[in-house]
Each structure stands twice: as C-alpha cells, then as structure tokens.
Design brief:
The structure is a single chain. The protein has 150 residues and is of the alpha+beta class. It has one domain: Aminopeptidase. Helices cover 28% and strands 22% of the residues. The chain is built from 4 helices and 5 strands, in the order E-H-H-E-E-E-H-E-H. It has a 5-stranded mixed sheet with strand order 1-2-3-4-5, with helices on both faces. Helix 1 packs across helix 2. The protein starts with 10 loop residues before the first strand and ends in a 17-residue tail after the last helix. The model has no long low-confidence stretch (mean pLDDT 88).
Length: 150
Amino acid sequence: MHSSDSPQEANIREALPSDAPRIAALCVQLGYDVPVSHVERSLGRRDVDGEMFVAVVARVGVVGWVAVNAQESILTSRAAEVRGLVVEDEYRGIGVGALLLARAERWARERGCPTLFLRSNVVRDRAHAFYERCGYARKKSQHVFEKQLA
C-alpha cells in the first residue's frame, strides 16, 4: 500500500460476477473457506427480490466487500443486516471499511430500513472497536447453535 492511498481514491461499486474469486479469497481472512461457485450463486440470487446488496472497493483488484440484506420478521420490524464485511489486511486502517459500511447504510435507508445491525465474533476486538468508531452500539452477546441436517 502506498502512503498516498486513501479511501476517497477507492472505487466503490456493486459487485460483479467476475468479482467472485476475489470475494471468496477475502472470505478466508474472516475464517471462512467459501467456494467461488457459492459466491457466484449468491451474487446471481441477490437481484431476485432486491433484498440483498453486495458492494466492493476495487483498486487494482477487489480489496474489500460488504454484503447486506433487508429483512422483517414476526419479532422485529424491517431492518437491514450486514452479513459480511472484510477488507484486505494491507488496506485496513485507511477508511476502506468505513466507506463500505457507509454504502451499506445508504442502501438500507433507500429500502426503508430504519436500523442496520451486524454480528461480530467475540474474538474480533479490532472489528468491535471499528464498529463502535462508526457509531454502532454493542447491544447484546449471544450463542449461535447449529445442527447439520444433511
């Protein structure tokens, strides 16, 4: 990374199918080994109901991405959830993540979601500090339970 790099120079745009390999590679930095084919399918489904958005920051290639969904349930009113956000290690700390989060917030507002929330693993202290700097308040801690059905 060059000292002249800044988030203002970043190109933020909606993810393209051709971004799938790079998005999958960045998933590894979050601890998820996601096949490129799964990312391609997810990008293909996002336009079905307009309730999912994926944006990337591209410089020479994709250096970060955010995925956000709009949802409503019996228990909650309409809200949006950041389902993933990752920035390449060497581009952290210069505002790329904040740029992606701001784009997710704009998308959520455009879809009538008064709230944007996210979940972050308890071991990600640096991410927690980042979200708090961006104005997010820690609301609760919880356990995640999973059962394999197949």
